[in-house]
Design goal:
- The chain is of the alpha/beta class and 277 residues long.
- It has one domain: 3-Layer(aba) Sandwich (Rossmann fold).
- It has helices at residues 14-25, 38-52, 68-80, 103-130, 153-173, 193-198, 207-213, 223-234, 263-268, and strands spanning 5-8, 29-34, 56-60, 85-88, 136-140, 179-185, 245-248.
- A 7-stranded parallel β-sheet has the order 3-2-1-4-5-6-7, with helices on both faces.
- Helix 1 packs parallel to helix 2.
- The chain is globular, with a radius of gyration of 19 Å.
Length: 277
Amino acid sequence: MSNRKALVTGGSKGIGAGIVRKLASIGYDIVFSYGQHQEDALELCRQLHDEYGVQCDCFQASLDIPGEGEKLFNKAVDKLGGLDLMVNNAGVTIMESIIDLTEKNLDYMINLNFRNYLLMAHFSIKYMAQHGIKGSVISITSSRSQRAYPGDAVYGGIKAGLNRAIESIALDAAPYGIRVNNVAPGAIRIRTQEEIKAMGKNVPTNFWDELGERIPLERSGLPEDIANAVAFLASDEASYITGVTLRVDGGLILPGMPEVISDETSARMWGYVKKSF
């Protein structure tokens, strides 16, 4: 029996690399795209081939540019000889107050984070339907789609739009046995402290640990947490699940405004209560 075949956008680093590694570990042949980090992408392919014996190829693609997504899709299907799973992951997070909003960033995020996701779903579902493949399309959104923060009107709004869009897409795809779902990450350790500082952000040395203390499950997430959710939704165990957004955030957005203010709750930003037994 041949391996299942997956295309993952933005697979060279962070959440995307976690997804690619997980899919390879369960026997998928994979094509993934990368934006700029060619050496990282090629090294990841080499590792996956050596560790799991699967086929792995990567292609550069600037998916905010019209036409690039279709080129990537055609190359991936040709290389893999088919497609069972499409994972939309490539994206960018730009925080910008509405007062400082720039059309450049607005257009960039709409093209990359929304328009391209819908087009890749279109290419994938059409291909699967034409070839009788009961496959799966999974897109990575964000817990910001369900909770508002300052400066994320565009980013959060796009992610909320994706949550709604896949509900209709799931209805379009269902008659062909194709399932369509989202995974919405919370705070995920996608960059090291060094990488964050290289971006010009002044953050504490133990940033991820401090942030984790303010999350109900008391840790920041890992790319593996999102990868496990993707693997589940793509599996036969989830064969009766379509049109849903699965939030994977450790309970990050559940509490809202803390009801009780104390030294502990102010540090965690929610009504923290922990009994001793």
